[in-house]
Specification:
Two copies of one chain form a homodimer.
Chain A (H helix, E strand, L loop, with lengths): L4 H7 L3 H12 L2 E2 H7 L4 H13 L3 E6 L2 E6 L1 H27 L21
The structure holds a DNA duplex (30 and 30 nucleotides).
Amino acid sequence: METNGEGALGLLGDPSRRAIFELLARHPCSVQELTDLLPISRPAVSQHLKVLKDGGLVVSRAEGTRRIYQLRPDGVTALRTWLDGVWQDALTGFQKQAEASTPGLEPDPNDHLNDEPEER
Amino acid sequence: METNGEGALGLLGDPSRRAIFELLARHPCSVQELTDLLPISRPAVSQHLKVLKDGGLVVSRAEGTRRIYQLRPDGVTALRTWLDGVWQDALTGFQKQAEASTPGLEPDPNDHLNDEPEER
DNA sequence: CGGTTCCGTTAGTGTTAGCTTACCGTTCGT
DNA sequence: ACGAACGGTAAGCTAACACTAACGGAACCG
Protein backbone atom coordinates (compact mmCIF):
# COMPACT_ATOMS: atom_id res chain seq x y z
CA MET A 1 0.00 0.00 0.00
CA GLU A 2 1.50 3.24 -1.08
CA THR A 3 -0.80 5.84 0.42
CA ASN A 4 1.06 8.64 -1.29
CA GLY A 5 -0.55 10.97 -3.74
CA GLU A 6 1.99 10.26 -6.44
CA GLY A 7 1.06 6.63 -6.77
CA ALA A 8 -2.60 7.38 -6.38
CA LEU A 9 -2.46 9.65 -9.39
CA GLY A 10 -1.17 6.80 -11.46
CA LEU A 11 -4.11 4.67 -10.38
CA LEU A 12 -6.63 7.37 -11.29
CA GLY A 13 -5.16 7.71 -14.74
CA ASP A 14 -7.61 5.15 -16.06
CA PRO A 15 -11.10 6.49 -16.81
CA SER A 16 -12.86 3.40 -15.49
CA ARG A 17 -10.93 3.69 -12.25
CA ARG A 18 -11.83 7.36 -11.97
CA ALA A 19 -15.49 6.47 -12.46
CA ILE A 20 -15.33 3.82 -9.75
CA PHE A 21 -13.54 6.27 -7.50
CA GLU A 22 -16.21 8.92 -7.96
CA LEU A 23 -19.02 6.42 -7.44
CA LEU A 24 -17.46 5.21 -4.22
CA ALA A 25 -17.10 8.80 -3.13
CA ARG A 26 -20.87 9.19 -3.17
CA HIS A 27 -21.55 6.06 -1.14
CA PRO A 28 -20.06 2.60 -0.57
CA CYS A 29 -20.96 0.06 -3.23
CA SER A 30 -20.82 -3.64 -3.85
CA VAL A 31 -19.14 -5.04 -6.94
CA GLN A 32 -22.49 -5.87 -8.45
CA GLU A 33 -23.77 -2.30 -8.05
CA LEU A 34 -20.67 -0.89 -9.67
CA THR A 35 -21.02 -3.39 -12.50
CA ASP A 36 -24.61 -2.29 -13.10
CA LEU A 37 -23.60 1.36 -13.14
CA LEU A 38 -20.56 0.96 -15.39
CA PRO A 39 -20.26 -0.14 -19.02
CA ILE A 40 -17.67 -2.81 -18.24
CA SER A 41 -17.88 -6.41 -17.10
CA ARG A 42 -17.78 -7.54 -13.50
CA PRO A 43 -14.27 -9.02 -13.63
CA ALA A 44 -13.05 -5.71 -14.98
CA VAL A 45 -14.59 -3.92 -12.03
CA SER A 46 -13.10 -6.47 -9.69
CA GLN A 47 -9.64 -5.98 -11.16
CA HIS A 48 -9.85 -2.22 -10.89
CA LEU A 49 -10.98 -2.55 -7.31
CA LYS A 50 -8.00 -4.75 -6.58
CA VAL A 51 -5.67 -2.15 -8.03
CA LEU A 52 -7.34 0.62 -6.07
CA LYS A 53 -7.21 -1.46 -2.92
CA ASP A 54 -3.53 -2.30 -3.33
CA GLY A 55 -2.92 1.39 -3.94
CA GLY A 56 -4.55 2.26 -0.65
CA LEU A 57 -7.40 4.28 -2.09
CA VAL A 58 -10.26 1.98 -1.06
CA VAL A 59 -11.02 -0.68 1.53
CA SER A 60 -13.38 -3.64 1.36
CA ARG A 61 -15.64 -5.10 3.98
CA ALA A 62 -17.42 -8.44 3.72
CA GLU A 63 -21.17 -8.35 4.15
CA GLY A 64 -22.81 -11.68 3.56
CA THR A 65 -21.80 -12.96 0.17
CA ARG A 66 -20.90 -9.55 -1.18
CA ARG A 67 -18.02 -7.20 -0.56
CA ILE A 68 -18.77 -3.58 0.11
CA TYR A 69 -16.07 -1.20 -1.13
CA GLN A 70 -15.61 2.33 0.12
CA LEU A 71 -13.04 5.08 -0.11
CA ARG A 72 -10.22 5.27 2.35
CA PRO A 73 -9.93 8.84 3.67
CA ASP A 74 -6.14 8.63 3.90
CA GLY A 75 -5.96 8.02 0.18
CA VAL A 76 -7.86 11.15 -0.74
CA THR A 77 -5.90 13.10 1.84
CA ALA A 78 -2.62 11.94 0.32
CA LEU A 79 -3.83 13.14 -3.05
CA ARG A 80 -4.66 16.56 -1.68
CA THR A 81 -1.35 16.75 0.12
CA TRP A 82 0.61 16.00 -3.03
CA LEU A 83 -1.37 18.47 -5.07
CA ASP A 84 -1.01 21.16 -2.42
CA GLY A 85 2.76 20.65 -2.49
CA VAL A 86 2.95 21.14 -6.22
CA TRP A 87 0.57 24.04 -5.90
CA GLN A 88 2.80 25.77 -3.37
CA ASP A 89 5.87 25.28 -5.53
CA ALA A 90 3.98 26.67 -8.46
CA LEU A 91 2.87 29.71 -6.48
CA THR A 92 6.41 30.61 -5.44
CA GLY A 93 7.46 30.02 -9.01
CA PHE A 94 4.83 32.38 -10.33
CA GLN A 95 5.84 34.95 -7.75
CA LYS A 96 9.51 34.83 -8.70
CA GLN A 97 8.59 35.05 -12.34
CA ALA A 98 6.43 38.10 -11.64
CA GLU A 99 9.39 39.76 -9.93
CA ALA A 100 11.55 39.00 -12.92
CA SER A 101 9.71 41.65 -14.93
CA THR A 102 7.42 39.49 -16.98
CA PRO A 103 4.25 41.54 -17.23
CA GLY A 104 2.08 38.98 -18.98
CA LEU A 105 2.10 35.52 -20.45
CA GLU A 106 3.06 35.65 -24.08
CA PRO A 107 1.36 32.95 -26.09
CA ASP A 108 4.56 31.96 -27.86
CA PRO A 109 4.32 33.96 -31.09
CA ASN A 110 7.00 31.90 -32.84
CA ASP A 111 5.12 28.68 -32.39
CA HIS A 112 4.31 28.15 -36.03
CA LEU A 113 5.60 24.59 -35.71
CA ASN A 114 2.88 23.65 -33.32
CA ASP A 115 -0.13 25.84 -33.93
CA GLU A 116 -2.54 22.98 -34.58
CA PRO A 117 -3.31 21.78 -31.08
CA GLU A 118 -6.35 19.63 -31.75
CA GLU A 119 -5.50 16.04 -31.06
CA ARG A 120 -7.10 13.55 -28.66
CA MET B 1 -7.85 22.40 -24.43
CA GLU B 2 -9.60 20.55 -21.69
CA THR B 3 -8.84 22.60 -18.59
CA ASN B 4 -10.94 20.29 -16.47
CA GLY B 5 -9.53 18.27 -13.64
CA GLU B 6 -10.76 15.00 -15.00
CA GLY B 7 -8.74 15.18 -18.16
CA ALA B 8 -5.77 16.60 -16.33
CA LEU B 9 -5.74 13.56 -14.08
CA GLY B 10 -5.39 11.37 -17.10
CA LEU B 11 -2.43 13.42 -18.24
CA LEU B 12 -0.68 13.12 -14.90
CA GLY B 13 -1.17 9.40 -14.83
CA ASP B 14 2.15 8.88 -16.54
CA PRO B 15 5.19 9.04 -14.22
CA SER B 16 7.34 10.91 -16.72
CA ARG B 17 4.62 13.51 -17.14
CA ARG B 18 4.27 13.85 -13.38
CA ALA B 19 8.02 14.39 -13.13
CA ILE B 20 7.93 17.08 -15.80
CA PHE B 21 4.95 18.65 -14.08
CA GLU B 22 6.72 18.79 -10.73
CA LEU B 23 9.89 20.18 -12.28
CA LEU B 24 7.94 22.90 -14.02
CA ALA B 25 6.21 23.67 -10.73
CA ARG B 26 9.57 24.63 -9.22
CA HIS B 27 10.58 26.90 -12.09
CA PRO B 28 10.10 27.21 -15.84
CA CYS B 29 12.43 25.02 -17.88
CA SER B 30 13.61 24.57 -21.43
CA VAL B 31 13.31 21.23 -23.16
CA GLN B 32 17.04 20.70 -22.88
CA GLU B 33 17.01 21.27 -19.12
CA LEU B 34 14.20 18.79 -18.65
CA THR B 35 16.03 16.27 -20.81
CA ASP B 36 19.13 16.59 -18.66
CA LEU B 37 17.12 16.13 -15.48
CA LEU B 38 15.08 13.18 -16.69
CA PRO B 39 16.09 9.64 -17.69
CA ILE B 40 14.33 9.83 -21.04
CA SER B 41 15.34 11.14 -24.44
CA ARG B 42 14.63 14.64 -25.69
CA PRO B 43 11.93 13.64 -28.16
CA ALA B 44 10.12 11.83 -25.35
CA VAL B 45 10.17 15.03 -23.31
CA SER B 46 8.92 16.97 -26.28
CA GLN B 47 6.03 14.58 -26.80
CA HIS B 48 5.02 14.76 -23.16
CA LEU B 49 5.17 18.53 -23.30
CA LYS B 50 2.90 18.52 -26.30
CA VAL B 51 0.38 16.39 -24.44
CA LEU B 52 0.56 18.61 -21.38
CA LYS B 53 0.19 21.68 -23.52
CA ASP B 54 -2.81 20.34 -25.41
CA GLY B 55 -4.29 19.38 -22.06
CA GLY B 56 -3.98 22.96 -20.85
CA LEU B 57 -1.58 22.25 -18.02
CA VAL B 58 1.45 24.12 -19.39
CA VAL B 59 2.26 26.95 -21.77
CA SER B 60 5.37 27.58 -23.84
CA ARG B 61 7.21 30.78 -24.58
CA ALA B 62 9.94 31.24 -27.17
CA GLU B 63 13.25 32.58 -25.93
CA GLY B 64 15.91 32.67 -28.60
CA THR B 65 16.26 29.25 -30.09
CA ARG B 66 14.75 27.50 -27.09
CA ARG B 67 11.23 27.15 -25.75
CA ILE B 68 10.61 27.81 -22.10
CA TYR B 69 7.77 25.78 -20.63
CA GLN B 70 5.89 26.68 -17.46
CA LEU B 71 2.79 25.65 -15.60
CA ARG B 72 -0.54 27.21 -16.37
CA PRO B 73 -2.31 28.21 -13.13
CA ASP B 74 -5.76 27.42 -14.50
CA GLY B 75 -4.74 23.81 -15.04
CA VAL B 76 -3.71 23.28 -11.45
CA THR B 77 -6.80 25.10 -10.26
CA ALA B 78 -9.03 22.78 -12.30
CA LEU B 79 -7.32 19.82 -10.69
CA ARG B 80 -7.97 21.17 -7.21
CA THR B 81 -11.58 21.90 -8.08
CA TRP B 82 -12.22 18.37 -9.26
CA LEU B 83 -10.49 16.85 -6.26
CA ASP B 84 -12.42 19.10 -3.89
CA GLY B 85 -15.67 17.89 -5.43
CA VAL B 86 -14.79 14.26 -4.85
CA TRP B 87 -13.56 15.19 -1.41
CA GLN B 88 -16.86 16.78 -0.48
CA ASP B 89 -18.84 13.79 -1.72
CA ALA B 90 -16.58 11.52 0.27
CA LEU B 91 -17.01 13.63 3.38
CA THR B 92 -20.79 13.42 3.28
CA GLY B 93 -20.43 9.70 2.67
CA PHE B 94 -18.23 9.25 5.70
CA GLN B 95 -20.58 11.33 7.77
CA LYS B 96 -23.59 9.22 6.87
CA GLN B 97 -21.65 6.09 7.57
CA ALA B 98 -20.56 7.42 10.95
CA GLU B 99 -24.16 8.21 11.83
CA ALA B 100 -25.23 4.73 10.90
CA SER B 101 -22.74 3.15 13.31
CA THR B 102 -22.81 5.76 16.10
CA PRO B 103 -26.27 5.96 17.67
CA GLY B 104 -27.37 9.04 19.57
CA LEU B 105 -24.84 11.40 18.04
CA GLU B 106 -26.71 12.87 15.09
CA PRO B 107 -29.70 10.68 14.33
CA ASP B 108 -31.19 11.17 10.92
CA PRO B 109 -34.21 8.88 10.54
CA ASN B 110 -34.89 10.20 7.04
CA ASP B 111 -31.83 8.48 5.63
CA HIS B 112 -33.84 6.11 3.45
CA LEU B 113 -33.47 8.54 0.59
CA ASN B 114 -30.43 6.86 -0.84
CA ASP B 115 -30.66 3.24 -1.87
CA GLU B 116 -28.26 1.55 0.45
CA PRO B 117 -29.09 -2.14 0.57
CA GLU B 118 -28.63 -2.78 4.28
CA GLU B 119 -29.53 -6.30 5.26
CA ARG B 120 -27.68 -8.70 7.48
C1' DC C 1 -27.67 -31.07 0.74
C1' DG C 2 -28.40 -29.05 -4.11
C1' DG C 3 -29.04 -24.64 -6.24
C1' DT C 4 -28.16 -19.79 -6.48
C1' DT C 5 -25.91 -15.56 -5.94
C1' DC C 6 -21.91 -13.03 -5.41
C1' DC C 7 -17.14 -12.52 -5.97
C1' DG C 8 -11.93 -13.28 -6.85
C1' DT C 9 -8.58 -15.20 -10.15
C1' DT C 10 -6.47 -16.93 -14.24
C1' DA C 11 -5.50 -17.23 -19.13
C1' DG C 12 -5.72 -15.13 -23.37
C1' DT C 13 -6.23 -11.33 -26.58
C1' DG C 14 -6.27 -6.72 -28.80
C1' DT C 15 -5.26 -2.19 -28.36
C1' DT C 16 -2.99 1.69 -26.54
C1' DA C 17 0.87 4.45 -25.31
C1' DG C 18 5.62 5.65 -24.30
C1' DC C 19 10.38 5.34 -25.91
C1' DT C 20 14.03 5.55 -29.33
C1' DT C 21 16.17 6.45 -33.79
C1' DA C 22 16.37 9.37 -37.59
C1' DC C 23 15.17 13.52 -40.11
C1' DC C 24 14.17 18.43 -40.86
C1' DG C 25 13.18 23.37 -39.89
C1' DT C 26 14.58 27.40 -37.13
C1' DT C 27 17.61 30.53 -34.69
C1' DC C 28 22.04 32.30 -33.19
C1' DG C 29 27.13 32.90 -33.52
C1' DT C 30 31.30 33.56 -36.25
C1' DA D 1 26.63 32.13 -45.46
C1' DC D 2 28.08 28.09 -42.84
C1' DG D 3 27.74 25.31 -38.97
C1' DA D 4 26.06 24.33 -34.49
C1' DA D 5 22.53 24.39 -30.92
C1' DC D 6 17.69 23.77 -29.97
C1' DG D 7 13.54 21.43 -30.61
C1' DG D 8 9.31 19.52 -33.05
C1' DT D 9 7.75 15.47 -35.99
C1' DA D 10 7.46 10.65 -38.34
C1' DA D 11 8.02 5.86 -38.25
C1' DG D 12 8.59 1.74 -35.74
C1' DC D 13 9.00 -1.33 -31.96
C1' DT D 14 8.02 -3.02 -27.49
C1' DA D 15 5.66 -3.41 -23.19
C1' DA D 16 1.93 -2.40 -20.42
C1' DC D 17 -2.85 -2.67 -19.72
C1' DA D 18 -7.81 -3.00 -20.03
C1' DC D 19 -11.17 -6.16 -21.32
C1' DT D 20 -13.67 -10.70 -21.96
C1' DA D 21 -14.34 -15.52 -21.16
C1' DA D 22 -14.02 -19.38 -18.15
C1' DC D 23 -13.16 -21.59 -13.82
C1' DG D 24 -13.39 -22.10 -8.74
C1' DG D 25 -14.67 -20.88 -4.09
C1' DA D 26 -17.58 -19.07 -0.34
C1' DA D 27 -21.91 -17.66 1.78
C1' DC D 28 -27.18 -17.68 1.83
C1' DC D 29 -31.70 -20.18 0.99
C1' DG D 30 -34.91 -23.80 -0.22
